[in-house]
Specification:
The chain is α+β, with helices and mostly antiparallel strands and 416 residues long. Helices cover 35% and strands 35% of the residues. α2 runs antiparallel to α3.
């Protein structure tokens, strides 16, 4: 009789399947709980820049480009208009004060001058004639008064004699009254003549004063026209270098037109263009350093031009310790402009990463150098060499400072 053979439950196959299942579940659990799911990118270290965070002194400064210019530049503007008849000095030559540079011609100015002179001459003649007439009138007054005084004396004699005769009843009342009227008439006539001559004299004196005032103004006008004619000869107002002159013989120049400039060669300054981002922090008296011929020269801002053109504004700087020997007009050089005091800070070298992250995060290299991971940071001030680190980085840590443009949004860089 056959015996039933019972199958074993825990077979090798079953045990193997259970083991495989447990292993799969373990792998899934490990991958879920412990594996790194961050996005990664393999990067070759020789194609990126890695810089170390350090602790040191943060100097807040910017590097700007300055151009050497004369300390003083005098613009040559045409005081009067005209056409150029003679050009005696070309640009680029030294001139002395008062040296003739150009000669101009203007016929209208000459005509105005002649008309003004003619008017002045007419006024002089009129003034002389008025004074002569006043003298003649004074002589006539004296003559008239002399004749009246003679007639009055005769009339008074007749009147006095008739008055005595009347008292003696020798002459009639009619004869007496006739001599009295003649005498009174002459006395009254003399008073009127004096008043009339006085009025004429006062009127003549008023006319003389008016003519004198008009003549004085006309003579000033003549002198003004004479000076205007003299301005047709353009002279150097100061000694220096005639750096430019933008006219040629035969060209017409308008009044007020700029025709050139003279540079005072007794000193130099630096004209500097600065990004408008710093306009609120730039002021007269700010210090700077300028390297020339192996030496550092201190400079100081003396003037700030508030006009912004193409995102930049200008300032003038002078040399605090005198102009360096050998410096030349038009020479350009970098200048270190100090914006604040030196302070101790955590420093991160400047790199291309900032344009990609805005300074909000960086890739920090782990200690073993195998990878670099994203980390949020906070940056403060900047100079051409370093950023000031406010939070997120410690001295001694290493950061990828080159551009992140090829990394996309990867969170981890696998360094090889």
């Amino acid at each position: 009789m056959d015996r039933k053979i019972e199958k074993k439950y825990w077979t090798v196959k079953r045990l193997g399947l259970i083991a495989v299942g447990i292993l799969v579940i373990a792998l899934i659990a490990y991958n879920f709980l412990y594996a790194d799911h961050r996005s990664k990118l393999n990067v070759e270290t020789d194609k990126i820049s890695i810089s170390e965070v350090s602790e040191g002194i943060f100097d807040e400064f910017i590097i700007v480009q300055g151009v050497v210019q004369p300390l003083k530049t005098i613009q040559l503007d045409a005081i009067v208009g005209g056409y150029v008849t003679n050009k005696l000095v070309e640009g680029g030559n030294m001139v002395n004060q008062g040296q003739i540079i150009l000669r101009l011609e203007n016929q209208q100015l000459k005509l105005n001058f002649l008309q003004s002179e003619t008017e002045a001459s007419r006024l002089v003649n009129e003034l002389q004639n008025t004074r002569q007439r006043l003298r003649v009138e004074r002589f006539n007054l004296q003559k008239t008064l002399s004749d009246l005084d003679f007639q009055i004396a005769q009339a008074k004699d007749s009147f006095d004699r008739n008055q005595q005769l009347k008292n003696d009843n020798v002459v009639s009342d009619m004869e007496y009254m006739r001599t009295k009227r003649d005498y009174d008439k002459l006395v009254k006539q003399r008073e009127i003549e004096i008043q009339s001559q006085k009025y004429q004299q006062e009127n003549a004196e008023i006319q003389i004063k008016q003519l004198e005032g008009t003549l004085e103004r006309t003579e000033r006008n003549v002198e003004l026209w004479r000076q205007t004619l003299q301005n047709l000869v353009v002279k150097a107002p100061v000694a220096g270098l005639l750096s430019s002159i933008d006219v040629e013989i035969g060209s017409n120049i308008n009044q007020g037109q700029n025709i050139g400039q003279i540079d005072d060669m007794n000193g130099f300054k630096m004209r500097v263009e600065i990004d408008e981002h710093y306009i609120s922090r730039i002021f007269a008296g700010l210090q700077a350093n300028f390297d020339f011929n192996g030496s550092t020269h201190k400079m100081e801002i003396t003037k700030v031009y508030p006009e912004v053109l193409n995102g930049r504004f200008g300032v003038d700087m002078v040399f605090a310790d005198g102009t360096p020997e050998g410096i030349r007009r038009g020479q350009s050089s970098p200048i270190r402009l100090e914006l604040g005091k030196s302070e101790k800070a955590t420093l991160l070298p400047v790199g291309g990463f900032f344009s990609d992250t805005g300074g909000n995060w960086v890739y920090v290299v782990e200690k073993d150098g195998s990878k670099a991971t994203k980390r949020n940071i906070t940056l403060g001030r900047k100079n051409p060499r370093h950023y000031e680190v406010l939070d997120g980085l410690n001295p001694g840590e290493k950061v990828v400072t080159s551009s992140y443009g090829n990394f996309g949004d990867k969170e981890v860089l696998e360094l090889k």
